[in-house]
Amino acid sequence: MKNIRNFCIIAHIDHGKSTLADRLLDFTGSVTEREKQDQLLDNMDLERERGITIKSHAIQMEYEYQGESYILNLIDTPGHVDFSYEVSRSIAACEGALLVVDAAQSIQAQTISNLYLALENDLEIIPVLNKVDLPSANPEEVTDDIVDLLGCSAEEVIPASAKTGIGIEDILEAIIERIPAPEGNPEEPLQALVFDSVYNPFRGVETYFRVVNGSIHKGQKIKFVATGKDYFADEVGTLKLTQQPKQQINTGDVGYLITGIKDAREVKVGDTITDANKPTDNAIAGFEDVKPMVFAGIYPVDTEDFEELRSSMEKLQLNDASLVFTPESSAALGFGFRCGFLGMLHMEIIQERLEREFNMTVITTVPNVSYHAYTTKNTDQSIIVNNPSDLPDPSTVDRVEEPYIKATVITKSDFVGNVMSLCIEKRGQITNQTYLTPERVELNFDMPLAEIVFDFYDRLKTVSKGYASFDYAPIGMRVSKLVRVDILLNAQPVDALSALVHADNAYHIGKKMCEKLKELIPRQQFDIPIQAAIGSKIISRETIKALRKDVTAKCYGGDISRKRKLLEKQKKGKKRMRQVGNVEIPQQAFMAVLKLN
Ligand code: GDP
Ligand code: MG
Fold it and tell me: Using CA positions, which residue lies closest to atom 22 of ligand 1?
């Protein structure tokens, strides 16, 4: 135990976490030439393309230091707010963290929020000033920023380049010298923290854990405390680039477990594994059932594919327990599912996976957060509103509550005014303003989560010319004035286009929606009126003028193959269109409300 070090890397996106992890693996000889890939730890295709680590993993390195051999477990943490609970559990499995700061970019919002998590868990922080090789690096200034933030000395900050290898040996030395060895009692009943799980279609769910007390061995009968279920440990082992089966994993160490579980929902991040025959009295603190934050409808483009979509979603859920879905039907779109996601990125990932892995073409409706409505009949019992159509009739509503977040923005002092105006426009309330340095300001505000679903990120980038970073955490429900804006095409309401919005913005959004839909819906053989309404009251109107002639008309008498090509092309373009009544609506139209500016 005294020669084990468990650590994670905290960094804002693109500050070099993955590159540094690769360099550490390289330096400790944990990778053979054959195993070398660009980004070793990001092994899902999607992650590689998006350049973010979606699922956290762990990897074990061995390192000789002053004549002794050490085991270094690097626990990777996801880099996006959608996965913040997983970040918190990965951090809880460590004794130390490398705080990686880009020497050209300095401290950003994600660095700060994850640093706070690490400090709450009493982690030893090792500040690393990365990318010192860059000509644009500002090592002195950024070191000062780090010193101010941590209250450490400048000497503790390690200058490094994950790219060229500068400072890597110093980082390894600091991991061994500064991070405490794990504590824990090998004699106590097994107590292991689940910090991640990965679905493997052949072997079932692989559970990643950190042993806090006792030990876990092959063949042991174990119990997951939160789910209350028992299993046999078919295989336990440590994680190198490949899995290394072992007889036993001891106190303080990190490993994987295979039990033949086929459904990701049976393994919950944050749960405690114990011995079924000699269970611990104490679950490890901090377990939470993760709840979806954003909801949207997913419908097959072709109504006949509904059952296939269901089976694809079930398979996806086996390996992504945070995806939830229930069947719903829409007058406009037919049968589909109301799905819950951890956030907008998670939603995009699910949509992309349905298409890539299951070959499904789907239509996604406007996402919304989950509201609580109370009717005048029963002012204590909330009705959960995950779909605009679930909102009770306005005349019966006592009040509606919506989820709020605490937002953290770090920006340059020049942009403070702009960011504050944006925040107020987004119904936010400034709670705090701190100058980290004379040029860099941290702003905190409380704001409705729904505003992030809309165009907050893009707007923040624009008003700060890209010099702002953003992070957030949920802080509970607050009362809000909410209405449903309905859209009518050809005088028919299209339920899948309805949106829940704040009453003060309803007219503006209704008007913009009509304008946007006019742009997005192709002209057809007849005029199409577009109307926005609140209840029976029409608040805005536009008209799509009829097409004047057949597109293929100009080909008559001409080259027949050219005509066929044109028709083919039209058919392809139609793929993601839905016929609603006699109007064809493209996929973008269902998301139009998100892109109103
Ligand atoms: P992550 O998002 O924190 O995992 O960041 P990555 O490791 O993916 O790095 C983001 C970008 O910065 C990549 O293009 C890296 O090649 C680059 N990068 C990482 N470390 C260094 C460094 O020390 N020097 C330079 N010049 N570039 C680096
Ligand atoms: Mg990365």
Answer: 131
The model's pTM is 0.79
Lookup: tokens for 471: 């992070």
How much of the chain exceeds pLDDT 70, in percent?
90
Query: Which ligand does the CA of 167 lie closest to?
Result: 1
Atom of ligand 1 nearest to the CA of 9: 3
> Complex ipTM, two decimals?
0.98
Closest atom of ligand 1 to 52 CA is: 2
Ligand 1: does its nearest atom lie under 6 Å from the Cβ of 133?
Answer: yes
The response to whether residue 166 sits with its C-beta less than 6 Å from ligand 1 reads no
pLDDT band at 568 (very low <50, low <70, confident <90, very high): low
Burial of 380 (C-beta count, 10 Å sphere; 0-12/13-18/19+): exposed
Contact (CB, 8 A) for 545 and 524: no
CA neighbor of 324 nearest in space, from 350, 357, 363: 350
CA 52, CA 73: separation in Å to the nearest integer? Answer: 20
Structure tokens at 6: 């468990």
Q: Which of 125-129, 331-335, 552-556 has the lowest mean pLDDT?
A: 552-556
Q: Are β-strands 429-435 and 440-448 bridged in parallel, bridged antiparallel, or unpaired?
A: antiparallel
Q: Sorting pLDDT into bands at 50, 70 and 90, what band is 597?
A: low
Residues lining ion ligand 2 (Cβ < 5 A) are: 18, 53
Taking a C-beta distance cutoff of 8 angstroms, is the pair 101, 14 a contact?
no
The residue to mutate among 13, 14, 469, having the most atoms of ligand 1 within 8 angstroms of its beta carbon, is 14
Q: How many Å apart are CA 259 and CA 257, to the nearest integer?
A: 7
Q: Ligand 1, closest atom to CA 164?
A: 23
CA 42 – ligand 2 centroid, Å: 7
| pLDDT recorded at residue 56 | 42
* DSSP notation for 350-363: HHHHHHHHH---EE
- Distance, CA 19 to ligand 1 centroid (Å)? 6
Contact assessment for residue 278 and residue 261, using Cβ atoms and an 8 Å cutoff: no
Q: What is the pLDDT of residues 32-76, one digit of tens each?
A: 665 665 545 555 555 555 444 434 478 999 999 999 999 999 998
The pLDDT-based confidence of 245 (bands split at 50, 70, 90) is very high
Ligand 1 touching residue 130 (CB < 6 A)? yes
Per-residue pLDDT tens digits for 130-142? 999 999 999 999 9
Which residues, in sequence order, are bridge partners of residue 528? 544
Q: Atom 18 of ligand 1 has which residue's CA nearest to it? A: 16
